[in-house]
Known about the structure:
The structure holds two protein chains of two kinds. Chain A is mostly helical. Helix content of chain A is 76%, strand content 0%. Chain A has a domain at 32-69. Chain A is rod-shaped. By secondary structure, chain B is an alpha+beta fold. Helices cover 35% and strands 23% of the residues of chain B. The interface between A and B is large, with 29 and 44 residues.
Amino acid sequence: MKKHKFLLFFLIFTVITLGLVKIIISNGMTTSGTVLGQLNEKVTNYQVENTLLAEKVLNYTSFDNISLKADKLGFVNKKISMSLTSVLPIAIKQ
Amino acid sequence: MNWRYRLLLIFFIILFGIVIIRLFYWQIVKAQELSDLGQQQYGQALTVPAERGEIRTSDGFPIATNKISYVVFANPKEIKDKQEIINTLAPILNVDPASISASLSLDLFWVELGKADEVKKNQIAKLNLPGIDFKQEYSRFYPEASMAAQLIGFVGKDDLGQDKGYFGLEGYYDRLLTGKDGKALEIHDAFGKPVLAKIDNSSGQTNGSNLILSVDRSIQFLVENVLKESVEEYGATSGMIGIMDPKTGMILAMASYPNYDPRDYQTYSESLFINPFVTDTYEPGSTFKPLVMSSALDAKLIKPETKCPICAGPVSVGGYSIETWNNEYFKNTTMTEVIQHSDNTGMVFVAQKLGLDRMLDYLNKFGIGNATGIDLQGEVSPELKPKNQWYAADLATTGFGQGISVTPIELLSAISAIANDGKRMEPHVVSEVENPDGTSIKLEPKVLDQPIDSETAKVMTEMMVNAVEKGEASWTKLKGYRVAGKTGTASIALNGTYDSSKTIASFVGFAPADDPKFSMLVILNKPTTSIYGAETAAPVFFSIAKDLLLYYGISPN
C-alpha cells in the first residue's frame, strides 16, 4: 500500500513538473518569433550597410577617382625622357 | 440472426469505403491545392534572387560588381496633389515630368516612377511625400567607370525584364555570372510574425561565379590614358591597343577609344558597345611582313642574308606595278634589310618564293582566317579566299599585308607566336573562375599550334630588333632595351580603290626581345598629323613599352 502511494505521488509530481517545463518552454517560444524577426532585420540592415560601405570604398579606391583627385592636387606625370633619343617626333601637333 | 450480422457488416464496409474514398479525394486528388492554400495562410513564398558574380582584375579589384539601388514607386490613389509630386520628383530622379504624370494618372495601386541611388533615396525619404515608397534591389556597378568598357560589356534587360549581360565578358560569361534564383518559404503566425518552427531558406539558390581576369588594372589604366591622348594628338578618328603575355596568351590590357561608360550605356551610340579589337577587320599592311618572312625562313627558302634580285625598282605582277612606300629601292637588298626598310618589293620576292600552297598553310598555322577563340563576345574571323580565287597579284600583295583582312587580336596572337619560340597560344582574358561553393578553376594556357620552329622564331626576332634599331621608327626606340617590332601603314580600301591619304597606322612588337614579358599591337585609325605608323603608332608603342618595362622592374641592358 505504501509502495503504491509512493508511485502515485511520483507520477503526480512528474506530471506537474513536465507541465511546468512545457509552460516555461512555450512561454519562451512565443516571443522567439519576434526575436527572430528582429535578428533577421538586423542581418539585412548589416548586409545593406556592408554593401553601401563596399560601394564607397570601391569608389574611393578606383584609379578613376584617384587620378581625378591627383589632378586637382596638382600631381603630374613624370616627363623625364630617360630612353628617348633627342630627335623630335615629326608628327606631333604643335 | 445471421442476416442481421451480415447487414451490419455490409453497412460498416460501405461506411469505411466512403471514408476511404473521401480521404483519397482530400489527401491525394486535392493534396497540392490544399497544401498551397495552407501555405498561403501560414507562410510566404519568396524568390531569393541570385547575386551576379563579380569581375575582378588581376589585383583582385572588382571592376564589375553589384550595388544597392532603389525603385521609387507610388500609389496614385493615395496622392492628392499630383502636381507637387511631379515637380518634386522629376528633377531628383532625372525623369521627364510627363512620364511621371502619365504613371500617376493610371488606375493602379503600384506604379514605378524611376530608380534612385542611396543618396537620392534618402533625399526623397526626408520629404515624407504621401503615397511614395521604395523597393530595394541590386544593380550592376562599375567602380572604374569607362575603364575596359568594351572588354567588360554591361548588364541590361532582356525581353522579360530580367538582367542580362551584353557584349564583352558580361555577354560571353553571362550564364556563369548570372547564377540561379531560389525560392524560400517563411512561416509566420496569425500576426504575420516569423515563427521559429521552420524557415526553409535553402531554396536551391546559387550565386553567380566570380571571374578573375588576367587584365592588369595598372596597365589598363596606363594604356587607356596614353591611347586617348594619342588619338587626340595625332588627329586619328579612333584607336586601339592590345597587350598580351606571349608565353601564356593571357591578355594584360585591351583598350579602344572612343569608348563608353557602362553605368550609363543608354546615352551612348550602340556602335561603341562592340570591342573593335576582336570584331573589326582591317588590312594589316607592313605589320604582316614578319609572318610571311618567318614562314619563308621556316620553310628554308630564304636566309636573313639572302639577296633580293627584283628589288632594284618597281615590280610588275599580274598587270599591277608594286612600289615601295617611299619610292626608294635597294638593289640586292638582304632579307634583314627588307624588314628594316619595310620593302614591299622584297616581300613580293619572299611571297613568290613561298608560293600559294605554303603561304596558305603557314597563314593557317598562324591562325589567320580562323577565330582565335578568345573569351569575348562577338569575335569575327575573316576567312581566307578559296585557293582557286587567288591570283598572282593577291599572293604578291599578301606578302606586304595588303589585300588580306585580319582582326587585331588575330595579328597580335600570330606575332606573339614569334615571341614565344614559335608556339601560338590561345588568347584569354579570364584566368580563373571562382565558384560560389568556394572552389576555383584555373584556366591553363593552351598551345594552339606551332607555325614556326624555335630557331626560326629567334632569327625573325633578330630581324625585328634590327628593324627597330635601324628602321624608320628608330627615332623613337628605347635606349638600353632590345625591342622587336614592326611598323605598319596600311592603305584603306574604299570602293575597290585605295585612298593614299587615309591609312591605318600601326605598330606591333614585343619586349624584351630575348625574354618577352609582353607583346603589343597599337592601331591608330586615319591619323591626320602623319599617315605613317612610324610617326604615330610607333611612339605610342614605345611610350607604353617604357612604362611597362619600368613597371615589371626590367633594367636596361
